[in-house]
Specification:
Function: Could be a nuclease involved in processing of the 5'-end of pre-16S rRNA.
Strand content: 25-35%
Radius of gyration: 14 Å
CATH class: Alpha Beta
Distance between the termini: 13 Å
EC number: 3.1.-.-
Number of helices: 4
Helix content: 40-55%
Keywords: Cytoplasm, Hydrolase, Nuclease, Ribosome biogenesis
Shape: globular
Pfam family, one: RuvX
Structural class: alpha/beta
Number of strands: 5
Organism: Salipaludibacillus agaradhaerens (Bacillus agaradhaerens)
CATH topology: Nucleotidyltransferase, domain 5
Order of helices and strands: EEEHEHEHH
Oligomer: single chain
Strand order of the largest sheet: 3-2-1-4-5
CATH superfamily: YqgF/RNase H-like domain
Length: about 140
Amino acid sequence: MKILGLDVGTKTIGVAVSDELGWTAQGVETIKREENDLDEAVERLEELIAEHHIAKIVVGLPKNMNGTIGPSGEACQQFAKELSQRTGLKVEMWDERLSTVAAERMLVSADVSRKKRKKVIDKMAAVMILQGYLDRQN
């Protein structure tokens, strides 16, 4: 059963997919999106779901450091709800605190240029979200 991992932002959605056994997460792509128009982004996600035979979706939930959910967390919850309705798949939320920071540090330590980091940071954050979820399940 493959799982789709998403790092949902206001302008982009980082996408990762698990292997069939649910052990590892691999980055797939970063989808550009309009904040108030989800149709194109969801259409692309539906294509990826079909292409990779996805059975479940994990969406990163950006919580504040004190555990509360702010406006961006609420937006991610709304996105997850709409995605579940459109795809018919179960969508789980996963605490993503510091996933983007961790992804940035990993890319900096790998000596990836700032320009290249900007292109892959959301995809890497999606990998970290999904890998955290997979590790917890196993």
